[in-house]
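Case study.
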Amino acid sequence: MANEAEAAPVLSPGLKGLVSDFGSDQRAFKHVPWGKAMMWIFLLSDTFVFACFLVSYMTVRISTADPWPNPSQVFSLHIGQTNVPLLLIAIMTFILISSSGTMALAVKFGYEKNRKVTAILLVLTAMLGASFVGMQAFEWTKLIMEGVRPWTNPWGAPQFGSTFFMITGFHGTHVSIGVLFLIVMATKVIRGALDDERPGFLTGRKGRYEMVETLGLYWHFVDLVWVFIFAFFYLW
Amino acid sequence: MAHVQAQQQHPIGIYLWIWGLLFVLSAFSYLVDYVGFEGLLRWFLICLFMMLKAGLIVSIFMHMAWERMAIACAILIPPGVLLFLMGLMTLEAHYTLLARLRYFLN
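After joint prediction, the assembly is written out as follows.
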C-alpha cells in the first residue's frame, strides 16, 4: 500500500485537484482516513432523514386550516412575575454550542496527544450533552402535563404535537447516543488506548486519535441539526 | 500549505473565536423572537443567522474548510436537492390547504 507521505507532493489543490482526486485510483478522498469519510457519508444520510422530518413539518404547517400554536408562547417559562419567551430553548441552544466548543478543543488536544486535557474535555462535552437531554425531558414533561399529545393540543393545529415529538425526539435520541459514545471515547482516552493503539473491544480497530475527530464530526452534526430545528420549529 | 498533513491541527484561538461568534449569533437569533420582528424581516434574519451558524460549524468545527475539494463537494452538494424537495412540498401543501378550505370548511 502506497503511504500518504509519498503521494502528498503530487496532489494539486482546488478544482484541478477535485478532478484528479475523483479520477485517481483506489481512493478519491485523499488525506481523509476511511473512518472519517464513512462518518461524513453517514452524516449525509442523516441530513436527509432530518430534512424529511423538517420538510414534513413544513408541509403540515402550511396545509393545516387551523391556526398554528405560537411557539414563542408555548415554550415560554414563568420566571417571577413575567413570562420569558423561549427561555429554556435559548439555554439549551447555548449549552449545545458550548458542548460543540469543548468537543472541538478535545479534537485539538487529542492530536497533540494531551491525554488528560482531551479526557477532561470529552467528559465535559458528555456532561453538557446530558444536561441538554435533561432539559429536553423537562420540556416534554411540561408540554405533556399541559395536554400536548401527538394528535391534539390545547392551542390549535393538532399536527403541532406530532411534529414536535418526532423532530425533538429524534434529535434527543441522537444527543443521547452521542453522550454514550463520548463516555466510551473518554474511557479509551483515559486508559491510554489511543496512545498505545490498543484494539477496540467491539471492532478490534487500533486506537488512534483520529477517532476523537470522527466522533467530533458526529457531535458537531447534532449541534448543526439543532441550529435548523431552533430556526424552523421554535423561531419561525 | 506546502506540507499537507492528514491530521487537522489548528491554533486554539480559531476555535475560541468561532465559539464566541456562535454565541453572539445565537443571541441575535433569540433576540429576533424576543424583540418580536414580524413578516419578511423576521424570516430573513432567522435564515441569515441560521446559515451563518451552520456555515461556521461545518467549515471550522468540522474542518471542512481545510479538507480537499473532493470530499467537500461530495458531502455538501447532495443536500442541495433538498431545496427542490422543499419547493415541491410547498406547492403540494398549498394545494392541500386550498382543497381543504374549498371543500371541507364552508
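Observations recorded in class. The mean pLDDT of chain A is 91. Chain A touches chain B through 67 residues (CB under 8 Å). We will return to this complex in the next lecture.
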